[in-house]
Amino acid sequence: MNAHTNVLTVTQLNTYVKSILEGDRNLQAVYVQGEISNFTDHYRSGHLYFSLKDSGGVIKAVMFAGNARRLRFKPEDGMKVLACGKVSLYEVTGQYQFYVNELQPVGAGALAIAFEQLKNRLEKEGLFAEEHKKALPRCPERIGVVTSPTGAAVRDILNILSRRWPLSEVVLCPVLVQGEGAAQQIAEAIARFNREKAADVLIVGRGGGSIEDLWAFNEECVARAVAESKIPIISAVGHETDFTICDFVADLRAPTPSAAAELAVPDRGEVLRNLLHTDEVLRNSLQNRMNLERQKLDRVTTALGESFNRPLEKSHQKLSKLMAQLDALSPLKVLGRGYAVIKKEDGTILENASEAAPDEILHLRLKNGALKCRVLEQEQV
Amino acid sequence: MKSKMTFESAVSRLEEIVASLQDSTVSLEESLKLYEEGAKLSKYCYETLEKAEQKVRTLTGEETINEA
Predict the structure, then answer these.
(1) CB contact under 8 A, A168 and B54
(2) Which of A43, A61, A72, A77 has the greatest number of CB atoms lying within 10 Å of its CB?
(3) Which residues in chain B (24-53) have CB-CB distances under 8 A to chain A?
(4) What is the tens place of the pLDDT at every residue in A318-343?
(5) Which parts of chain B sit beneath pLDDT 50?
(6) Burial call A70-79: b when 16+ CB within 10 Å, e when fewer
(7) Nearest Cα to A236, choosing from A211, A262, A200?
Protein backbone atom coordinates (compact mmCIF):
# COMPACT_ATOMS: atom_id res chain seq x y z
CA MET A 1 0.00 0.00 0.00
CA ASN A 2 1.14 3.46 -0.77
CA ALA A 3 2.01 5.32 2.41
CA HIS A 4 0.86 8.61 0.88
CA THR A 5 -2.61 7.35 0.34
CA ASN A 6 -5.07 9.05 2.71
CA VAL A 7 -6.67 6.56 5.04
CA LEU A 8 -10.34 7.28 5.73
CA THR A 9 -12.57 6.10 8.48
CA VAL A 10 -15.78 4.25 7.47
CA THR A 11 -17.79 7.21 8.59
CA GLN A 12 -15.68 9.57 6.48
CA LEU A 13 -16.19 7.36 3.46
CA ASN A 14 -19.93 7.13 3.95
CA THR A 15 -20.20 10.86 4.51
CA TYR A 16 -18.20 11.48 1.36
CA VAL A 17 -20.34 9.20 -0.79
CA LYS A 18 -23.45 10.73 0.73
CA SER A 19 -22.25 14.22 -0.18
CA ILE A 20 -21.59 13.09 -3.76
CA LEU A 21 -25.10 11.67 -4.05
CA GLU A 22 -26.72 14.72 -2.50
CA GLY A 23 -24.60 17.00 -4.64
CA ASP A 24 -26.11 15.59 -7.81
CA ARG A 25 -29.14 17.70 -8.51
CA ASN A 26 -30.55 14.99 -10.78
CA LEU A 27 -30.80 12.70 -7.78
CA GLN A 28 -32.59 15.21 -5.55
CA ALA A 29 -35.93 15.17 -7.35
CA VAL A 30 -36.39 11.80 -8.95
CA TYR A 31 -39.53 10.03 -10.07
CA VAL A 32 -39.15 6.26 -9.90
CA GLN A 33 -41.68 3.72 -10.97
CA GLY A 34 -41.56 0.26 -9.46
CA GLU A 35 -43.28 -2.40 -7.45
CA ILE A 36 -43.38 -2.34 -3.68
CA SER A 37 -41.89 -5.29 -1.81
CA ASN A 38 -40.87 -6.00 1.79
CA PHE A 39 -43.27 -3.35 3.00
CA THR A 40 -43.03 -2.60 6.73
CA ASP A 41 -45.27 -0.18 8.54
CA HIS A 42 -43.35 1.08 11.51
CA TYR A 43 -46.36 1.74 13.69
CA ARG A 44 -44.51 3.40 16.53
CA SER A 45 -42.65 5.95 14.47
CA GLY A 46 -45.07 6.14 11.56
CA HIS A 47 -42.18 5.72 9.09
CA LEU A 48 -42.72 3.37 6.17
CA TYR A 49 -39.90 1.07 5.00
CA PHE A 50 -40.05 -0.87 1.76
CA SER A 51 -38.20 -1.74 -1.42
CA LEU A 52 -38.95 -0.71 -4.95
CA LYS A 53 -38.15 -3.29 -7.57
CA ASP A 54 -38.48 -4.10 -11.20
CA SER A 55 -37.37 -7.15 -13.16
CA GLY A 56 -33.74 -6.00 -13.11
CA GLY A 57 -33.15 -4.80 -9.58
CA VAL A 58 -34.15 -3.44 -6.19
CA ILE A 59 -33.66 -0.21 -4.24
CA LYS A 60 -34.37 0.33 -0.55
CA ALA A 61 -36.86 3.07 0.16
CA VAL A 62 -38.10 4.94 3.21
CA MET A 63 -40.99 7.33 3.66
CA PHE A 64 -40.90 9.35 6.85
CA ALA A 65 -43.97 9.77 9.03
CA GLY A 66 -44.53 13.40 8.07
CA ASN A 67 -45.02 12.41 4.43
CA ALA A 68 -46.61 9.05 5.15
CA ARG A 69 -49.43 10.68 7.11
CA ARG A 70 -50.63 12.41 3.95
CA LEU A 71 -51.08 9.13 2.11
CA ARG A 72 -54.73 8.33 1.43
CA PHE A 73 -54.09 4.67 0.69
CA LYS A 74 -52.04 2.05 2.43
CA PRO A 75 -49.08 0.80 0.35
CA GLU A 76 -48.96 -2.96 -0.03
CA ASP A 77 -46.51 -5.47 -1.43
CA GLY A 78 -46.98 -5.98 -5.15
CA MET A 79 -48.54 -2.55 -5.66
CA LYS A 80 -47.17 -0.64 -8.66
CA VAL A 81 -46.29 2.88 -7.62
CA LEU A 82 -44.77 6.08 -8.81
CA ALA A 83 -42.50 7.48 -6.09
CA CYS A 84 -41.07 10.96 -5.94
CA GLY A 85 -38.10 11.71 -3.72
CA LYS A 86 -34.35 11.93 -3.48
CA VAL A 87 -31.49 9.49 -3.45
CA SER A 88 -29.11 9.50 -0.50
CA LEU A 89 -27.15 7.25 1.80
CA TYR A 90 -27.88 6.04 5.33
CA GLU A 91 -24.49 6.25 6.99
CA VAL A 92 -25.23 3.83 9.81
CA THR A 93 -25.69 0.93 7.41
CA GLY A 94 -23.88 2.33 4.38
CA GLN A 95 -27.04 1.62 2.51
CA TYR A 96 -27.92 3.89 -0.32
CA GLN A 97 -31.66 4.40 -0.53
CA PHE A 98 -34.57 6.30 -1.90
CA TYR A 99 -36.19 8.85 0.41
CA VAL A 100 -39.81 9.08 -0.73
CA ASN A 101 -41.78 12.32 -0.36
CA GLU A 102 -44.82 11.33 -2.38
CA LEU A 103 -46.24 8.04 -3.46
CA GLN A 104 -48.98 7.38 -5.99
CA PRO A 105 -50.45 4.14 -7.20
CA VAL A 106 -49.98 3.48 -10.89
CA GLY A 107 -53.13 2.50 -12.74
CA ALA A 108 -56.04 3.00 -10.35
CA GLY A 109 -55.95 6.38 -8.61
CA ALA A 110 -54.86 6.75 -5.02
CA LEU A 111 -58.39 7.63 -3.94
CA ALA A 112 -59.87 4.64 -5.71
CA ILE A 113 -57.41 2.37 -3.93
CA ALA A 114 -57.99 4.06 -0.61
CA PHE A 115 -61.72 3.63 -1.12
CA GLU A 116 -61.39 -0.09 -1.82
CA GLN A 117 -59.05 -0.61 1.10
CA LEU A 118 -61.25 1.15 3.65
CA LYS A 119 -64.34 -0.51 2.22
CA ASN A 120 -62.80 -3.97 2.53
CA ARG A 121 -61.58 -3.31 6.04
CA LEU A 122 -64.88 -1.96 7.34
CA GLU A 123 -66.81 -4.69 5.59
CA LYS A 124 -64.68 -7.31 7.34
CA GLU A 125 -65.38 -5.53 10.62
CA GLY A 126 -69.09 -5.91 9.90
CA LEU A 127 -69.96 -2.23 9.66
CA PHE A 128 -72.06 -2.75 6.54
CA ALA A 129 -73.92 -5.79 7.89
CA GLU A 130 -77.68 -5.86 7.32
CA GLU A 131 -78.35 -6.70 10.95
CA HIS A 132 -76.91 -3.34 12.03
CA LYS A 133 -79.32 -1.43 9.80
CA LYS A 134 -81.88 0.41 11.87
CA ALA A 135 -85.46 0.86 10.73
CA LEU A 136 -86.52 4.42 9.93
CA PRO A 137 -89.41 5.93 11.90
CA ARG A 138 -92.63 6.15 9.87
CA CYS A 139 -93.38 9.75 10.75
CA PRO A 140 -90.30 11.34 12.34
CA GLU A 141 -91.00 14.28 14.63
CA ARG A 142 -87.59 15.83 14.05
CA ILE A 143 -85.36 15.37 11.03
CA GLY A 144 -81.68 16.21 11.44
CA VAL A 145 -79.85 17.40 8.35
CA VAL A 146 -76.05 17.33 8.21
CA THR A 147 -74.88 19.14 5.09
CA SER A 148 -73.55 22.42 3.78
CA PRO A 149 -75.83 25.35 4.65
CA THR A 150 -75.30 26.92 1.23
CA GLY A 151 -75.48 24.08 -1.29
CA ALA A 152 -78.37 23.04 -3.51
CA ALA A 153 -78.71 19.91 -1.39
CA VAL A 154 -80.07 21.72 1.66
CA ARG A 155 -82.55 23.68 -0.48
CA ASP A 156 -83.79 20.51 -2.17
CA ILE A 157 -84.15 18.71 1.15
CA LEU A 158 -86.08 21.57 2.77
CA ASN A 159 -88.37 21.96 -0.24
CA ILE A 160 -89.31 18.34 -0.36
CA LEU A 161 -89.75 17.99 3.40
CA SER A 162 -92.08 20.99 3.58
CA ARG A 163 -94.09 19.81 0.59
CA ARG A 164 -94.40 16.19 1.67
CA TRP A 165 -94.48 16.32 5.43
CA PRO A 166 -94.63 19.73 7.11
CA LEU A 167 -95.47 18.06 10.44
CA SER A 168 -91.89 17.44 11.37
CA GLU A 169 -89.32 19.90 12.60
CA VAL A 170 -86.12 20.17 10.59
CA VAL A 171 -82.94 20.56 12.60
CA LEU A 172 -80.03 21.75 10.48
CA CYS A 173 -76.45 21.23 11.46
CA PRO A 174 -74.33 23.15 8.94
CA VAL A 175 -70.94 21.60 8.16
CA LEU A 176 -68.19 21.79 5.59
CA VAL A 177 -68.73 19.00 3.09
CA GLN A 178 -65.37 19.17 1.34
CA GLY A 179 -61.82 20.21 2.01
CA GLU A 180 -59.72 20.25 5.15
CA GLY A 181 -61.66 19.33 8.30
CA ALA A 182 -64.89 18.46 6.48
CA ALA A 183 -64.91 14.80 7.53
CA GLN A 184 -64.29 15.73 11.18
CA GLN A 185 -67.14 18.25 11.12
CA ILE A 186 -69.53 15.73 9.59
CA ALA A 187 -68.54 13.07 12.15
CA GLU A 188 -68.90 15.55 15.01
CA ALA A 189 -72.32 16.70 13.79
CA ILE A 190 -73.57 13.10 13.78
CA ALA A 191 -72.14 12.51 17.25
CA ARG A 192 -73.72 15.73 18.49
CA PHE A 193 -77.20 14.85 17.20
CA ASN A 194 -76.82 11.62 19.17
CA ARG A 195 -75.55 13.29 22.34
CA GLU A 196 -78.33 15.85 22.33
CA LYS A 197 -80.96 13.40 21.03
CA ALA A 198 -81.92 16.21 18.68
CA ALA A 199 -83.50 14.17 15.87
CA ASP A 200 -85.39 10.94 15.12
CA VAL A 201 -83.71 10.43 11.76
CA LEU A 202 -80.65 12.00 10.13
CA ILE A 203 -79.99 12.92 6.53
CA VAL A 204 -76.24 13.15 5.92
CA GLY A 205 -75.02 14.22 2.52
CA ARG A 206 -74.22 16.76 -0.15
CA GLY A 207 -74.79 17.43 -3.83
CA GLY A 208 -72.75 16.02 -6.67
CA GLY A 209 -69.05 16.60 -7.30
CA SER A 210 -65.79 14.93 -8.25
CA ILE A 211 -64.46 11.99 -6.24
CA GLU A 212 -62.18 14.49 -4.47
CA ASP A 213 -65.16 16.70 -3.61
CA LEU A 214 -67.06 13.78 -2.13
CA TRP A 215 -64.02 12.44 -0.32
CA ALA A 216 -65.02 13.50 3.19
CA PHE A 217 -67.80 10.91 3.01
CA ASN A 218 -65.17 8.22 2.38
CA GLU A 219 -63.18 9.04 5.50
CA GLU A 220 -63.03 6.53 8.29
CA CYS A 221 -64.11 9.01 10.98
CA VAL A 222 -67.39 9.61 9.14
CA ALA A 223 -67.93 5.88 8.67
CA ARG A 224 -67.36 5.31 12.41
CA ALA A 225 -69.70 8.12 13.43
CA VAL A 226 -72.43 6.72 11.17
CA ALA A 227 -71.89 3.21 12.53
CA GLU A 228 -72.06 4.40 16.13
CA SER A 229 -75.15 6.54 15.65
CA LYS A 230 -78.22 5.42 17.58
CA ILE A 231 -80.31 7.65 15.31
CA PRO A 232 -81.08 6.01 11.95
CA ILE A 233 -79.13 7.65 9.13
CA ILE A 234 -79.99 8.16 5.47
CA SER A 235 -76.87 8.76 3.43
CA ALA A 236 -77.29 10.99 0.38
CA VAL A 237 -73.99 11.81 -1.27
CA GLY A 238 -73.71 13.16 -4.80
CA HIS A 239 -75.62 11.62 -7.67
CA GLU A 240 -77.17 8.24 -8.24
CA THR A 241 -73.91 6.81 -9.59
CA ASP A 242 -71.75 7.95 -6.66
CA PHE A 243 -71.14 5.42 -3.94
CA THR A 244 -69.33 6.40 -0.77
CA ILE A 245 -68.29 4.52 2.36
CA CYS A 246 -70.88 6.58 4.21
CA ASP A 247 -73.56 5.06 1.94
CA PHE A 248 -72.49 1.54 2.85
CA VAL A 249 -72.49 2.14 6.61
CA ALA A 250 -75.72 4.14 6.68
CA ASP A 251 -79.05 2.51 7.48
CA LEU A 252 -80.37 3.58 4.09
CA ARG A 253 -78.66 4.94 0.97
CA ALA A 254 -80.53 7.54 -1.01
CA PRO A 255 -79.38 8.18 -4.58
CA THR A 256 -79.61 11.97 -4.11
CA PRO A 257 -80.35 14.46 -1.30
CA SER A 258 -83.86 15.02 -2.74
CA ALA A 259 -84.48 11.29 -2.69
CA ALA A 260 -83.29 11.18 0.93
CA ALA A 261 -85.92 13.74 1.88
CA GLU A 262 -88.58 11.65 0.14
CA LEU A 263 -87.44 8.50 1.94
CA ALA A 264 -87.35 10.22 5.33
CA VAL A 265 -91.03 11.17 5.51
CA PRO A 266 -94.39 9.91 4.27
CA ASP A 267 -96.47 11.91 1.79
CA ARG A 268 -99.15 14.06 3.37
CA GLY A 269 -101.63 13.43 0.55
CA GLU A 270 -101.23 9.71 0.82
CA VAL A 271 -101.53 9.76 4.60
CA LEU A 272 -104.69 11.85 4.28
CA ARG A 273 -106.17 9.32 1.88
CA ASN A 274 -105.27 6.47 4.22
CA LEU A 275 -106.78 8.35 7.12
CA LEU A 276 -109.98 8.84 5.15
CA HIS A 277 -110.10 5.12 4.54
CA THR A 278 -109.38 4.32 8.19
CA ASP A 279 -112.13 6.70 9.24
CA GLU A 280 -114.57 4.92 6.96
CA VAL A 281 -113.52 1.53 8.27
CA LEU A 282 -113.95 2.86 11.81
CA ARG A 283 -117.51 3.97 11.07
CA ASN A 284 -118.37 0.78 9.20
CA SER A 285 -116.97 -1.38 11.95
CA LEU A 286 -119.26 0.22 14.48
CA GLN A 287 -122.22 0.06 12.08
CA ASN A 288 -121.56 -3.63 11.44
CA ARG A 289 -121.27 -4.26 15.12
CA MET A 290 -124.57 -2.49 15.79
CA ASN A 291 -126.30 -4.50 13.06
CA LEU A 292 -124.88 -7.66 14.49
CA GLU A 293 -126.10 -6.76 17.98
CA ARG A 294 -129.54 -5.85 16.64
CA GLN A 295 -129.86 -9.22 14.91
CA LYS A 296 -128.76 -10.93 18.08
CA LEU A 297 -131.37 -8.99 20.05
CA ASP A 298 -134.08 -9.95 17.53
CA ARG A 299 -133.16 -13.56 17.83
CA VAL A 300 -133.22 -13.46 21.62
CA THR A 301 -136.60 -11.68 21.68
CA THR A 302 -138.16 -14.28 19.39
CA ALA A 303 -136.74 -17.09 21.47
CA LEU A 304 -138.07 -15.48 24.65
CA GLY A 305 -141.62 -15.23 23.21
CA GLU A 306 -141.51 -18.84 22.09
CA SER A 307 -140.35 -20.17 25.40
CA PHE A 308 -143.20 -18.30 27.14
CA ASN A 309 -145.93 -19.36 24.69
CA ARG A 310 -145.16 -23.02 24.39
CA PRO A 311 -146.22 -24.20 27.92
CA LEU A 312 -149.41 -22.09 27.75
CA GLU A 313 -150.38 -23.71 24.51
CA LYS A 314 -149.76 -27.12 26.01
CA SER A 315 -152.00 -26.37 29.01
CA HIS A 316 -154.66 -25.12 26.70
CA GLN A 317 -154.70 -28.37 24.74
CA LYS A 318 -154.77 -30.43 27.93
CA LEU A 319 -157.68 -28.41 29.26
CA SER A 320 -159.86 -28.95 26.16
CA LYS A 321 -159.09 -32.67 26.26
CA LEU A 322 -160.17 -32.84 29.92
CA MET A 323 -163.30 -30.89 29.14
CA ALA A 324 -164.20 -33.33 26.32
CA GLN A 325 -163.69 -36.25 28.69
CA LEU A 326 -165.69 -34.55 31.41
CA ASP A 327 -168.45 -33.88 28.92
CA ALA A 328 -168.55 -37.52 27.78
CA LEU A 329 -168.84 -38.75 31.34
CA SER A 330 -171.50 -36.30 32.43
CA PRO A 331 -174.64 -38.08 33.86
CA LEU A 332 -176.79 -35.48 32.17
CA LYS A 333 -175.61 -36.99 28.91
CA VAL A 334 -177.00 -40.40 29.99
CA LEU A 335 -180.29 -38.85 31.12
CA GLY A 336 -180.44 -37.22 27.69
CA ARG A 337 -180.78 -40.68 26.22
CA GLY A 338 -184.01 -41.35 28.26
CA TYR A 339 -182.59 -42.74 31.50
CA ALA A 340 -183.49 -41.56 35.02
CA VAL A 341 -181.71 -41.50 38.36
CA ILE A 342 -183.80 -42.82 41.21
CA LYS A 343 -183.09 -41.67 44.75
CA LYS A 344 -184.64 -42.62 48.05
CA GLU A 345 -185.94 -39.98 50.44
CA ASP A 346 -182.61 -40.05 52.24
CA GLY A 347 -180.81 -39.34 48.92
CA THR A 348 -179.16 -42.78 48.33
CA ILE A 349 -179.27 -43.89 44.74
CA LEU A 350 -181.40 -46.96 44.05
CA GLU A 351 -179.67 -49.73 42.14
CA ASN A 352 -181.79 -52.81 42.92
CA ALA A 353 -185.62 -53.15 42.97
CA SER A 354 -185.35 -55.00 46.26
CA GLU A 355 -184.07 -51.87 47.95
CA ALA A 356 -187.53 -50.22 47.70
CA ALA A 357 -190.55 -51.30 49.67
CA PRO A 358 -194.21 -50.91 48.41
CA ASP A 359 -195.68 -47.47 49.17
CA GLU A 360 -192.21 -45.97 49.54
CA ILE A 361 -191.70 -42.49 48.07
CA LEU A 362 -188.93 -42.28 45.42
CA HIS A 363 -187.49 -39.28 43.58
CA LEU A 364 -186.82 -39.62 39.79
CA ARG A 365 -184.31 -37.27 38.14
CA LEU A 366 -184.94 -36.96 34.39
CA LYS A 367 -183.18 -35.01 31.67
CA ASN A 368 -185.53 -32.14 32.31
CA GLY A 369 -187.10 -31.89 35.74
CA ALA A 370 -187.89 -34.48 38.45
CA LEU A 371 -190.81 -36.64 39.60
CA LYS A 372 -191.92 -37.69 43.07
CA CYS A 373 -193.45 -41.25 42.79
CA ARG A 374 -194.94 -43.93 45.05
CA VAL A 375 -193.98 -47.64 44.64
CA LEU A 376 -197.02 -49.78 43.77
CA GLU A 377 -195.50 -53.25 43.63
CA GLN A 378 -192.16 -55.07 43.49
CA GLU A 379 -191.87 -57.11 40.31
CA GLN A 380 -189.56 -60.07 39.86
CA VAL A 381 -187.46 -59.73 36.69
CA MET B 1 -106.53 13.21 24.85
CA LYS B 2 -103.05 14.33 25.76
CA SER B 3 -101.69 17.25 23.75
CA LYS B 4 -98.28 15.58 23.76
CA MET B 5 -99.52 12.75 21.54
CA THR B 6 -97.45 12.36 18.39
CA PHE B 7 -99.03 11.94 15.00
CA GLU B 8 -97.47 8.53 14.63
CA SER B 9 -98.73 7.23 17.97
CA ALA B 10 -102.19 8.63 17.20
CA VAL B 11 -102.28 6.76 13.89
CA SER B 12 -101.05 3.55 15.54
CA ARG B 13 -103.71 3.79 18.25
CA LEU B 14 -106.36 4.47 15.60
CA GLU B 15 -105.34 1.34 13.70
CA GLU B 16 -105.47 -0.64 16.94
CA ILE B 17 -108.98 0.62 17.62
CA VAL B 18 -110.18 -0.31 14.13
CA ALA B 19 -108.79 -3.82 14.62
CA SER B 20 -110.55 -4.14 18.01
CA LEU B 21 -113.84 -2.94 16.56
CA GLN B 22 -113.70 -5.73 14.02
CA ASP B 23 -113.27 -8.24 16.82
CA SER B 24 -116.77 -9.31 17.93
CA THR B 25 -115.53 -10.60 21.29
CA VAL B 26 -115.11 -7.02 22.51
CA SER B 27 -118.19 -5.97 24.45
CA LEU B 28 -120.63 -3.53 22.90
CA GLU B 29 -120.03 -0.96 25.65
CA GLU B 30 -116.30 -1.24 25.02
CA SER B 31 -116.89 -0.90 21.27
CA LEU B 32 -118.81 2.31 21.75
CA LYS B 33 -116.05 3.68 23.94
CA LEU B 34 -113.44 2.63 21.38
CA TYR B 35 -115.39 4.23 18.57
CA GLU B 36 -115.61 7.48 20.45
CA GLU B 37 -111.86 7.44 21.07
CA GLY B 38 -111.23 6.52 17.44
CA ALA B 39 -113.38 9.35 16.15
CA LYS B 40 -111.44 11.82 18.32
CA LEU B 41 -108.10 10.45 17.14
CA SER B 42 -109.17 10.60 13.53
CA LYS B 43 -110.20 14.25 13.95
CA TYR B 44 -106.92 15.04 15.69
CA CYS B 45 -104.92 13.44 12.86
CA TYR B 46 -106.85 15.35 10.20
CA GLU B 47 -106.38 18.64 11.94
CA THR B 48 -102.70 18.00 12.55
CA LEU B 49 -102.19 17.18 8.89
CA GLU B 50 -104.16 20.16 7.67
CA LYS B 51 -102.66 22.75 9.98
CA ALA B 52 -99.02 21.64 9.90
CA GLU B 53 -96.36 24.19 9.03
CA GLN B 54 -92.73 23.20 8.82
CA LYS B 55 -90.40 24.52 11.50
CA VAL B 56 -86.70 24.76 10.78
CA ARG B 57 -84.02 25.44 13.37
CA THR B 58 -80.26 25.26 13.38
CA LEU B 59 -78.04 23.47 15.84
CA THR B 60 -75.72 26.31 16.72
CA GLY B 61 -72.01 25.97 17.26
CA GLU B 62 -72.24 26.49 20.98
CA GLU B 63 -72.55 23.24 22.87
CA THR B 64 -74.85 23.09 25.83
CA ILE B 65 -72.96 20.13 27.17
CA ASN B 66 -69.77 20.72 29.12
CA GLU B 67 -66.97 18.52 28.10
CA ALA B 68 -64.35 18.83 30.81
Answers:
(1) yes
(2) A61
(3) 24, 28, 31-32, 35, 38-39, 42, 45-46, 48-49, 52-53
(4) 888 888 888 777 777 777 888 888 88
(5) 1-2, 63-68
(6) ebbbebeeeb
(7) A262
